[in-house]
Design goal:
Length: about 350
Amino acid sequence: MNTNLLRLPFDRIVAAWRDALATAIAGALAWLLAGWLFGHTHPVFAIVTAIVCLAPGLPNHGRQAIGLMLGVAIGILTGELALLVPDHLMAAGTLALLRMSGAVLCSILIASAFGLPAVVPIQAGVSAVLVLAMGPENAGWHRMQDVLVGTGVGLVFSQVLLTPDPLRQIDSTMQNLLLRIGTGLDAAAEALRLSDPRRANAALNLMLRTQEDLALLRAGADAARYSARWSLRGRLAAGPVTGAADQSEHDAIRACAAALLLVDALHEALLRGHTPPEGLEDRIRALAAHASGKADLPPSGEDQPLSGPVDAEWLSVISPLRILSAILPARAGSGASQNRSRPSVSSPDPS
């Protein structure tokens, strides 16, 4: 059996267990608080709200909580307004269904106007339906009280008790990106050693997958900036977090683009049968070691200089190599917290 088929679900469980445990505890606490504060015997909406706010996989739990509360409020108000239509006008089942559909339409449109995540219009529509189907006594202010409790508990857990370290988030996604670049550079160096265009094409396909890691890093940087504005932990380190997010995103975009251009140009040069300059393979392997965190070399980018002149056919490889030589040694082995004040490194001449 392919171990990767079991490894992936296991990795997902490991990544989700912390949020899952927090969700279960917060849900129970929301249930108890709703009963104690408002005397609700079955505060289902309180525990459901806590689950929706803290479930694993959400890009930002705080934004989810605020959006949920806003959506519920819009839906309840819209449903209450729809109930103002006299009952004798809604006697027919078709007209009652039309009222419900109209309330759903209006609540979703109003919620969509805020430009917030999908949870806002979804909850607005659901809340309007519940008010009209269950009555305002069960799904109106009663539900809003439960939602307020669930949202409050969710915010306390996500913004105070279990707020992730924004700098660690950035570091983690950057290291994953660098590892992917290192793997691609190693494959490119091997293709260069064997003068094999097919291996170079395989290395290019590996490098194309860095776009996935780049997207995750940019999402992580956005989440860190949001955390710096809206969480207690982020507020305490707002300046360093914003600086680290900007610097990491800038370096990641440049490194991804340069690595992709390097491997693509190398592939083209090998296809045309051009002889690589001496020292190029060693230089690429050194950069791969830096990216993979396996090198303990000075961050000068000049530890493996090229020997002799460089033919014109290989200049398109050398140019992105300069960019990687400026970024990878400086980033490897150091986190965002150490690099937040690092000035841009000038591109050295690899020759």
